[in-house]
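Journal club prep — side note

Before the paper discussion, L.F. wants everyone to see what a predicted structure for a comparable chain looks like in token form. Sequence:
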Amino acid sequence: MARARYVRNVDSLTQLSDRERRQLRVVADKYAFRANDYYLNLIDWSDPDDPIRRIIVPCTGELQAFGALDASDEETNYVAPGCQHKYPHTALLVCTQICGAFCRFCFRKRLFMDSNDEAVVNLDPGIDYIRKHTAITNVLLTGGDPLMLSTRRLESILRRLRTIPHVGIIRIGSKIPAFNPYRILDDPELIAALSRYSTREKRIYVMTHFNVPQEVTQVALRAVNRLLKAGVILANQTPLLRGINDRPETLAELIRTLSFAGVPPYYFFQCRPTEGNLPFALTMVEAYRLLESAKKKVSGLAKRARLVMSHASGKIELVGLTRTRMYLKYHRARNHEDEGRFLSFKRDDNAYWLDDLVPADHHPGKARDATLHSSHFLSRD
């Protein structure tokens, strides 16, 4: 089995100068650094703006004041240790705090801090909660990266979830196909487990996290094909990121390459205003224009993805832009009455997040408590 060699210290990045490594130690002390040799070898070190480098190597811009560690207020979603339940039909199991590498723009970078205990080893309380709540049909395994678990551990989770009659879909959110496809290629027991529990009636979905075309290597495509042959359904999701995939040509190439290989786009995310993420954040207007420009270069199947923000109050889709207005819609909502609400705001080219569009006197602090003015609601349908 080919094993990735993991790198946890920026001093190991000998491609950087001594001065650069000294500067980045401060960043890595605050926001953990982790990479592996497979992924680092994808970097063109002669290009300081190489997108893989920006994804994985710390930068001093991360120290700029911006956002919050829990930008979407996930702490309020926990119903049992390691289990979040925000929307009626979907539950999340935060089953690990380890990834194949740590993206610098990660929205859960708090998991990699010593004081965090959101990911749990014992998922029994969460699985029991799911068993008791029959409205839950969709369970997302997340973290961290569930494919970093041992195959034995992952199979145990899959087996227990498959004994719950009302759970139809099990989703696994993973960047392993991009970070280390050998994890998939070199473990036949993993493929056997996924095949065993992805049945004709109830599929397993792997939500891949390819951010740029450079990640879609021939090795990664082999791993993708292995998952498809196991009966797993694949779809891709990525945030839109400054300096990484913020050119329409780049995004269109990513969409095309993955769609051709059987990994159509699912969501494009507005980069969350998480601490450390300012160097990667696009405004809402920039993100909307970027995706619309990219869509013009691809076929219909590749156009079906939504541009959304995972806001504390719900999953909000960016659906339209005019010279003077911005239009949003609640795709999912914490408050059932907000489901399907259509929102209209005065256009703000500097807005990164819903909270930037809501006047301060309309929300008393935390984003999840934001009270939108009635004039913002156009319809619930």
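L.F.'s comment for the group: The CA atoms of residues 41 and 132 lie 46 Å apart. Keep this in mind when we get to the figures.
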